Each structure stands twice: as C-alpha cells, then as structure tokens.
Amino acid sequence: MNSPKTIYDKIWQDHLVSDNDDGTSILYIDRHLVHEVTSPQAFEGLKIANRKVRRPEFTLATADHNIPTMDRDKGIDDPESKLQVETLEANCDEHGITFLSMADQRQGIVHIIGPEQGFTQPGMTIVCGDSHTSTHGAFGALAWGIGTSEVEHVLATQTLIQTKAKNMNIQINGKLPVGVTAKDVVLKIIQTIGTAGGTGYVIEYSGEVIRSLSMEGRMTVCNMSIEAGARAGLISPDRTTVEYLKNRPFSPSQDKFDSAADYWLSLASDDGAKYDKVIKIDADEIVPQVTWGTSPEDVVSINGNVPDPAKISDSEKQKSMFRALEYMGLEPNTNMTDIKIDKVFIGSCTNGRIEDLRAVSKIADGRKVAEHVNAIIVPGSGLVKKQAEKEGLDKIFIQSGFEWRDPGCSMCLAMNADKLKPKERCASTSNRNFEGRQGRGGRTHLMSPAMAAAAAIKGKLSDCREF
Amino acid sequence: MEKFKTIKSNAIPLPMVNVDTDMIIPKQFLKTIKRTGLGKNLFYELRYDENDKEIKSFVLNQDEYKDSQILITGKNFGCGSSREHAPWSIADYGIKCIIASSYADIFYNNCFKNGILPIKLKDEEIEVLLSAAEDSLNFTIDLENQKISYIENNTQKEMPFELDEAKKNCLLEGLDDIGMTLNKVSHISSFEEKQKSSNPWLYSQTIK
Q: Rounded to an integer, what is the distance from CA A22 to the centroid of its chain?
C-alpha cells in the first residue's frame, strides 16, 4: 500500500511535468486568472520575445482592482486606470482569452468570479498575479499568488518552476460559538501563528469547524492564508464542495460530473498523512475578533483592550507596537468598544460574497447607520449584486443608510476613488490593515461583516452579538 | 536578464520588521503598464510628505545613501501582496542586494526574476551589519563565493551566506526561465495528453 498522503502531496504529484536537475520541478497549471494590474508587463514580455499564449482557453480575465464602483456608465475617469483596463482588453483580444468586462454581469473580483463560475475546481492548480489566489484553496485546489514574471511564464508555457513547500495542518476543533464566523476563525489563526508563521508551508485547514463551514466561509479562511505567510491554504473536498459545483457554467458537463466528483473526493488527505507542523485551536476560544494595529496579526477580541507596549519585553516588538499605535492614533488599554469610527467598508475577496451580505442585512434591518459614519457595501461580483437584489437586501441596506455600489476591489486596496483620508478610521471586512493600505494615513480595523455592520450602526467598534 | 556581478557599495540601513509591499510601493504606482521608472517612488510614504517633499530624516533621502546598491532590513521583508512592482521599484532605484533575516515567499521569489539577490542571515548577524551600514562602511557582495565582506577599524570582516544552488545560477547566468522551460515543451505536451485521458473534464470545459 502507498504511504498516506496529504491533499497537497497528491495535487503536486498529479501536476508534475518533470523534475529539473537543480531540485526544482516544472508543475502544470490547470487554470490561470488574469487581472489588469499585474498582467500588462507579462503580455509585453510575450510580445518582445514573439511568444504566444499556450492555453488561452484555460485563462480567464477580468478588471477588478482599478474600476469605479459608482457611475459606471460614465466610464473610468482616471486616465492611467483607464489605459490599464483597455490594455488588458486588447491583450485578451489579441490572444483569444475570455475577458469579462465592466459591462458584463459576471464581472467581479477575480477570486469571487472563479468559484462562482465553476472555473475553480478541486484538484486543480490555479494561479493568478494576486496574493489572495489562496482563496480557491477552499475547493481543495492548489492555488497561489504569483508575480508578473511568473504570469508571463504561465501564459507562455502553462507551467511554473516550483520547489515543493512543507505541509502544515491547522485543526479547528469543536463548535463555533454564536456570532463567531469564518473571518473570526482566520483572524484567530493569524494571531496564533503570526504573519510569517506559514512562510514556506502550504496550510491545510481541517477539523469539525472547517467541515461545518459553507463554501463561502471556507473561502474567507483560505483567502487570508497569505496574511499568515502561506502562499497557499486548502481544505479537502467533501460533499459540500461537490454540491456547490453542480450546474455552474464551467463545471464539468453532466456526463463527466460524477467521475470528476469521484476524483475530487479521492484527493482528501489520507488518514495518517504526515505534516511538518500541526496547530490545534479550540473553537470555544474564538470570539468576534478585531485588529488594533497595522499588521493582520495585531488581533484582539472585541471585549479586549488596545495592548500596552510597556508590558512587552521583546524590544523589537515593542518598537513596532509603538509605531503601530502612533499610526493608528490609539492609546494603550483603551476598550476596543470605545473606538469611534468614520467609515465602514463591506466587501473584498475576503468578505464580498452573498453570505457576507446576508449577515450584514440581519444587523442592518430596521436600524440606521450612525450619523457621523459613511458606510459602503461593494458586492464581490455582478452576480452577487444581482442575488442580493433578488433577496431584497439592497433595500435594507439603502434604508439603513449604507451606500450600495458596483462590484470590484474598491477600498480594500484603494486603487480607485474609494479611499480613506488621512486619520480616518475604518471598520473593514477586507484583509490588510497595513499603513496606507486604504489610503494614505488611513486607519483600518479588520473584522467580520456582522462586526462591520454593528460598527456602522453604533458608530464605534461593537460586539455583533449584542444585536 | 543581466548577469549578477560582484557589488561594492555602502548599504542602506532600514531597521524595521514586516516591511510590506504597500510600504515598498503604494498602490497609486501600480497603474503603470511598464516595468521601469518606479525607483523614484520606492518607499513613497516613508520618503515624501503629503506635499511630495522629501522627508529629510528618512534614510533614502540622506546624501550618503543615495547611490547605495544594498539594503539591510528586518524580518519578514516584502510581506503582503504579490506585486512585482515591489522588486521593480527596488531594482529601478539601483538596489541589487537585500539583506534580511527572512522574507515573504512571493517577494523572495520575485527578486530572482529581477536580478536582485535577497540574502538571508541570522538576526544577530543583521544587527552587526546594520551598525556597519549606519557608519556608511563599504561592503562587497560576492555571490560566486557566497560571502559579504567589509573593513571595520582596519580589520577585514567576512560573513558567509547560504543560497539555493538553482537560484544562485539563475542570477549568475542571468537565465531566462521561460526559454529553459520551453526547451522541455515535449514534456508539457505529453503531460497534457496524459491528463486529458485521465481527467477529461478539464479539457472539455467550454467558456460561454
């Protein structure tokens, strides 16, 4: 009998084209997602070397980072953004790549539309010039972010040169308390292992809590693997995965679906598979989480306080805490629930799916956004937007005083017009609270959609369980 | 890509941990469709104030470091996004070698595609080099022999470093990865044939 394998080992084995003499391997790439920001230089490289795209039919492109989330009929104002989006469209045209434009209802954040279209499937290798490609790992795909040189390599060869990573298993055991969501789980994980904890590893998430999550929740967890330092995070496929993939536009056709599903389920990690590192977290320990600082590992529970650097002995850590507190404009030992906010951003590839919007609507229904707060909701895709409107969520949002926008990356990275002004404080469902991430001098607190909605209503960081 | 040659330069000391890619090159500069010209915006928000004026206290704005080809910094350098604009801006500024105790994976990998040597050393070795860098001493980075050397108080100091053999060759030879992979195109084609018969659904997907 073969020795037990992890899902990562199996997918690696199934995609090995050849081993190079120097210890690296050539790995086949099944699917490639492309967006406007990290691709123009790759296409330019192809042109200079007179190379073609090897598998345009395995490539899907959209514009998401740079596009406006309102007044779309007026087009893109910013000439640089406009040129970048037009360049992508022209490159796709030239190479025969499907491009979902701003006018297409299927357009959206690249990591939302891949799964939504069934383009993302278990057992695939999937790459994109974007670090949050780890999202697709929720399906039991091996998916990771790459740089532009590697985008060019995949376009030209449909392969990548890789070195195998180590296996890490993070088990979340028990049952999540009420009001605690996938976002709180992943923030807890990052707090536990740190932003470099997963460097050099592929993380496999397992345990009862992960099994009980919907595909949407699993995507939220895998999405932030990169914030824990791991290029890829994945979850073994199960019936939940198979159910999600039925009748999606790119899913295997009826006659092939059952054999595909058998293959997918066979990829789950074997009992007794060896991991280089195992982390166990008890679900009972997880409460609604928020960040206080400028690194995604700067996590506290909503009933906690801003930490006090004076109590830290490690001088390097103390120094970076002082810097973070100064940037964030916070005093040590402040109750997290006493922190007043100016803006709320609900959306992103972390939390821009329908389930996230439903969670927001439950809190918002019959309530009003605090007067001093500007709150925007940016659905992850045109189809998420359509579904939300079908369920009447848009009416609840608008009545409560939220702005209801068009899909895109928006204020997660603030490349378009949606951004914070210096010193503005934002409750955000996105993935990074780095200095300047949401606009120069802007102050970001990361949290779940329910927590961001609660913050919008109260005008300060709040516990969603009180609603 | 140009072949990596021995570097002789002083080094920019940046004693910060978790320097992320948003800090290295903020989003407003990602709208370009070129690889070049980003050096002037490297570390933009640390380097310029809100009126685009140089912040004198920031190390890149100090005269003695304006032509440095080496950057010495803290752990987990380059964390955050996959943007290759980060190594592009570093290379465009003229920095050819980074020395830190650890790097984020994607950034580390991106460096080699752009002729930048990212050296990993222990925290205590970084401390020693940072202090030499603050005195603006000149360093020699010899990739062939994998050592950093400098003269301090008339004494020759040497520090060896480890590097994966494949990555070292890639820099020394200035190799084109795509060209090398395309030499194995028959392997790729036969992989596709095999996969098409074992997992046919991967090949019959039609994009509507």
A: 33
Residue type, A429: T
How confident is the model over A109-165, as pLDDT tens digits? Answer: 999 999 999 999 999 999 999 999 999 999 999 999 999 999 999 999 999 999 999
Q: Is B208 in Cβ contact with A84 (below 8 Å)?
A: no
Q: Is the pLDDT of residue A52 over 60?
A: yes
Give A191-219 pLDDT, tens digit per residue: 999 999 999 999 999 999 999 999 999 99
- Minimum-distance CB partner of A415 among B30, B82, B192: B30
Q: What are phi and psi of A460, to 5 degrees?
A: -155, 165
pLDDT tens-digit map of B25-81: 999 999 999 999 999 999 999 999 999 999 999 999 999 999 999 999 999 999 999
Question: What's the angle, vertex CA A260, arms to CA A220 and CA A234, rounded to 5?
Answer: 25
User: For residue A227, what is the nearest residue in chain B, using CA coordinates?
Assistant: B80
CB contact under 8 A, B185 and A157: yes
Is residue A347 classed exposed, middle or buried when 0-12, 13-18 and 19+ CB atoms within 10 A define those classes?
buried
User: Which long-range contacts does B153-162 make (Cβ < 8 Å, 24+ apart)?
Assistant: B157/B132, B159/B121, B159/B125, B159/B128, B159/B129, B161/B119, B161/B120, B161/B121, B162/B120
- Given a cut of 90, is residue A371 above it in pLDDT? yes
- B64: number of Cβ within 10 Å: 10
How far apart CA A152 and CA A38 sit, in angstroms, is 10
Chain A CA closest to residue B19: A434
**Encoding tokens for residue A465?**
């369980």
Å between A87 CA and nearest CA of chain B: 8
B200–A256 CB contact, under 8 Å: yes
Q: With contact defined as beta carbons under 8 Å apart, do B188 and A231 qualify?
A: no
**CA A370 remoteness from chain centre:** 28
Q: Which residues from B are below 8 Å from A255, CB to CB?
A: none
CB < 8 Å to B184, chain A: 17-18, 26
Task: Give the closest of B18, B27, B109 to A295, CB-based.
Answer: B18
Residues of A in contact with B36 (CB under 8 A): none
Whether the CB of B22 is below 8 Å from some CB of chain A: the reply is: yes
Q: How far is B66 from chain A (nearest CA, A)?
A: 24
Cross-chain Cβ contact B178/A153 below 8 Å: yes
Q: How far apart are CA A181 and CA A289, in angstroms?
A: 9
Interface predicted TM-score (ipTM): 0.94
pLDDT at residue A16 above 80?
yes
Task: Using pLDDT thresholds of 50, 70 and 90, give the confidence band for residue B207.
Answer: low
The conformation of residue A2, written as its DSSP 8-state character, comes to: P
